[in-house]
Every structure is written in C-alpha cells, then in structure tokens.
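Worked example

This section walks through a single chain of length 719. The input is the sequence exactly as stored; nothing has been trimmed or padded.
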Amino acid sequence: MEKYEDETLSFEERAKDLASRLTLEEKVYQTLHGAPAIDRLGVKAYNYWNEALHGVARAGVATVFPQSIGLAATFDEDFIEEVADCISTEGRAKFNMQQKYGDTDIYKGLTFWSPNVNIFRDPRWGRGHETFGEDPYLTSRLGVRFINGIQGHDDKYLKAAACAKHFAVHSGPEDERHSFNAIASKKDMRETYLPAFKACVKEAGVEVVMGAYNRTNGEPCCGSKSLLVDILRGEWKFKGHVTSDCWAIKDFHEFHMVTSGPVESVALAMNNGCDLNCGNINGNLIKANEEGLISEETIEQSVARLYTTRMKLGLFDDPAKVPFSNIKYDVVDCKEHRMLNLKASKKGICLLKNENNILPLDKSKLKTVGVIGPNADNRRALVGNYEGTASEYVTILEGIKEYLGDDVRVMYSEGCHLCRDRVSGLAEAHDRTAEARAVAEESDVVIACFGLDPSLEGEEGDEGNEFASGDKPNIELPGIQADVLKAIYESGKPVILILLSGSALSVTWADENLPAIIEGWYPGAQGGRAMAQILFGDASPEGKLPVTFYRTTEELPDFRDYSMKGRTYRYMENEALYPFGYGLSYSDYEISNVSADSDEITPDGSIKIKASLTNNGNMKGAETIQVYVKVLRDDAPNFQLKGLKKLELAPGETKSTEFVLTPDSFGLYNDEGVKMLYNGDYEIYVGTSQPDTRSIALTGKKPVCIPVSYKGKDAVVPE
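Given that input, the structure is written out below as tokens.
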C-alpha cells in the first residue's frame, strides 16, 4: 500500500504524497477545473465546476428552491441550513448515480461553487439576486449556515464542498467586470465587503474560495497578494483551495493589463495561492516553470490542496466507509423535498402593504379573479439563474387556478411584454392593454403580476439578457408595465400587486394607490402554489426584506463607486420606500419582557439580551426578532443588524429567546481598518423591524431601545 492509499493517515499527508508522485505536466493539468485521469496512480477524472446556488444546477432534474435572495428573505438561519442539507443530499445522490455510469462531465462533481456572499450594495447589479442581500451580518449568518448544510457535520468526510465567492468586493458593473478596478477604503473593506467571507472561512470552515473577476484596489482578485496571501491564508488561516472565476486569469493580461501575457498571468495567480484554474490557461504553467517564474514546489502545493479536498469528499477511499456514498438517486425530487421547497417559497414571500387587511382573500366571496401581467405565467420568473431543472413548475397563474379549482372563474391576460412595448412583433404598442382592461372589468379582484425575470437581471453574457451587461439601467418597472398597471387600476377593482424580481424596484405609485403589494422574489419551482396559499390565507407571510427598496433611481450613488456612503440601510440618508428588515404578517406579534443583564459594555465581556414574542393574532405564523446596534458617534452607521431569531407561534402563544452581544457587536472600524470599541454611548434595539422612522410608520410598532455605554479607554476589538 502506498502512503496516499493509507486511510489511517491524514488527508493532508496522503494528498501531499500523491501530488509528489506526479510529473510536472501531470501536476499542471490537475490544476484545471476539468482534471484528467491519471490511470497509473488510480486517479479518476474529476470536474471541479459545479453549481448549487439554490438547488443542484445544470445537471438535470433537481429540487429548484427559491433564488438566494428569496431564501435570504426568510431571515431564518436554521431553515437555510435545512435547505442546503437537502441540496447536498441531492448532490450526493446525483454524484453517486453519475459515478456508477462513468459520467464525470462538467456539473457532475461534489465541489459546489456556492454560496455567493458578495454584498448587494446597489439594486442595479444584475447578479444581486444570487446573494443574501445588502447586510454583512445577515449574509455572514446565512452564508455560514448554508455552508454547514452543504458540507455536513461528519467527523471525517465532507458531504460536499462549498465555495464562498466572489472574493472580494464584486458587485458590478457586470459589463466592466473583466477590467474594472473596485476601489474600496480599508474601513469599507473590513466593515462591509470582507465580514461574510471571514465568517465563511473561520466559522464554517468553507473548503473552497473563489476569486472575483475584477481588480480590488489595483490587484486582480484571482492573483491578489493582499486578498489571497495576507488576508485569506495569513490572517484567517484558510486551509482549503482557491479557484479562479471562469477564465478570470486571462483577464490579467487581456483587460487588467497587469501582466505581459498568459505565462506571467498563471504564475501571478498560483504564486499568490490561486490553486485551480476554471478555464484552460494553466497549461502555461509548464512554460512559466521553465522561465523561472514559478517553482514546481508551488505547483505541487496547489495540487496537494486540490487532492486534499477530493480526499475529504471520500473520493480516494472505500465507498463503504464514506457515509454519503449510500445516498440513493430516488431522493432526488422526492415528495419530502418538494414540500420543503414549497415551505421555502412561502417563508420568503414579503408582504409590503395590506391596506384594511384586504389580504388574505376570502375564496367564498369571489366569483371571478383576474390574473394579469407578464409574470403571471412566466416560468423564468420562478427560478432566477444558476438553476436546475424542475420536474414541475407552478406559475402564479397555475397556482391560483389549482387553488380555486372550479369554484371561482380565473381570467388571464399577459397585459404586456416584460420589457417591450408590445407582445406581438407586428402589432402596435400596448397590444394587450385592452384585454387587460377587459379582464379587470370582469373580475371581483385583480392579481397583477409584474416585475423582472433573469432576462433583465443576471450575469454579464448570460444568454437572453435584454441588456447585454445583465445590470439594470434603473429600478423602475421596465417597459410599459407601469402604464398597464395604471390601466388595470382605472377599472376601480381592487388590485393586488405581486412583484417577482431578484432586486428592489421603485413602486412608489403602487404604494400610494394600490391596497396590497407582495414581493415574491424568484420563488422557486413551487412558487405559484406558495403564492396562492399566501393570497388565500392558508399561510401567513413571514418574509423580511434583505435589501432596501429605494424610492428613486436618482438617489442612488454612482454605480461604479464602491464607497458605502449613501448605500444600504446602514448608510443611506433618504427615507426608504420599504426598509431592510421590513415585512408584514396576517397575524399580530408583540415583543415584551425585553431586558439586558448589563448596561455597561466591557472589552472582554458580553451583554445578554432576553425578549419574549407573543402571537396576538388568530393565525399561526412566524416572526423574526431583530437586534440592531447604534453607535452614538457622528461617523457611525445608522444602525447595524447584530442578532436575529425566527420564532414560530400559534395564536396566543408566547416564546422567549436570548441574544448575546459581544464587544464585536459594538465595535466600529476606523480608517485603517482596525476594529475599535469607543468610549461613549450606544443603543440596542430589539423589535420585529429596523428602528428607523419609516419601519415604525409602516408597522405601527416601535422597537424597544436599551441604552448602554462603554466607559473605558478606546480599545482594539480582537478579531
């Protein structure tokens, strides 16, 4: 038995031994995402490129959960891990099946390049719906638990390998990402752009980190000494492997112009710790070694890291000893997973307005329901991007029809094209407006389904993007949607607006004129079924906004400016249309018995917060207690989320929970990127929303404020 075959040794020892037995050429080609087999050593071919953003993607049938932004809206850490655990179960089942039949193609491995923990700093960014929203704390908590679910809790083996991407500071513009230099201050880096990655590495033990396309402060991210050497492996002690984004290394010389050609580019990337090349450029490492730009030892080190990951997945061990090797294919798309998907869809739906409690609708009082809009029967608006293939898609129209059955007439009109001024190419503009008016006139209530889909917001180069970059030019309803919505409203019938989108939209007119507004995100393959259950009161909305809904595009800072000034709920100066953390319910929840065990912050202590939540309504449901901290200093953020806990309550039920706030919860980064605990006063807010005036006005509830202070000298908060 060779050393690398000895299952009693550590994975690192075995991987190092195996890597040392390869020729230089073999080593180099093992650093491509499609790594070839090495038969003489029993190394199978393996493709590292796989996706599992909201379900196993691009490899046939799988459970297609709500897009990540919709999962984030659950504000529920425990549930995120449950979803990710389901995804990795299906991932293992599909992998076991594919291995049985010798299928080692792209999207057939166990290295899942998810989650995307970039910060959704600007609503125009096309890829924002892949993220967990705009807040570093929420993103950190959900990112950690998603990774826990993907990687599992076995003492020896990974269920699958998760990947935190895109390291770092990547959030548009998409059409410039291959050449863009994102300039961010040390303060913004530490306060906003790095915390989620740090949590993924230090708390979740994420196995893989992916670099971004762009430069950050002058360095291409996939070859950045500052990011990959100093911070990731130096400060955070990351032990896994780093992969480039796809074809990002060739950007070094083609667009960033920091190297003279491919030989220098591959050397720069790997010398700074980028182990895997998503693409085919790493073949140039042979020449780079010949020219003295990179040592064979450095290449071998990267190969050893890659083999360590594969060994952690059990790919070099007796399958009988790997607990995940017996997961059978029949779990894929099973009934239990479909039910979990339905639950996920319901939990992420956000009720933004409900004037005079028009919702839920009473089916027994309706004869005709009109369903109007380009997203009413749009499958693409269910799933977002990086999606798998569902065995069943239930659109909003289909979900309402199924729910109402033969008891209520459902009339439908597309209303308009999603972004053009006509549906039929040869027709005149507004070619479906008359039909929409007619349907509204015939109906007792109108369900208006508008918004976006992945053809309007996505990744640069995505097939079918209406705007080549994937970014949105503004945050208005596209095309003539707003005109058609007003035409429906003129019928005098009550209009319930359902927005399906992966990002915030400016719907100020709707907020002023329509009785009810729901944000459904891209709610997954079961989205229509979930929406019907919410509309007609089988379930109560519990989603909270993971992003701010702004009133206008004009108030947004320059899209290319990475300073956080004026951005997100933490730094914005104007009043939001709908604030981060906001979302209504059909029930009525009351916070009580809020207490803190101390009113003094200490550099080495903590403050324990206790709170109770009561469901005073007559519907079962769930509500998230949110804890915010405000540092009473001129240069401090407005408020910062520092704790959240979702509680499910029956009518009349009360539950209690507690939160622990450490000095880290109260610290602020200075201009040098050092976290400081400052002498002075602080406020802790405990409620079911942010403590801003708009949230209080919308909910009619004011979070409880607990004043605390730190009376010592300014102190560095250990990280």
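What to look for: The mean pLDDT is 97.
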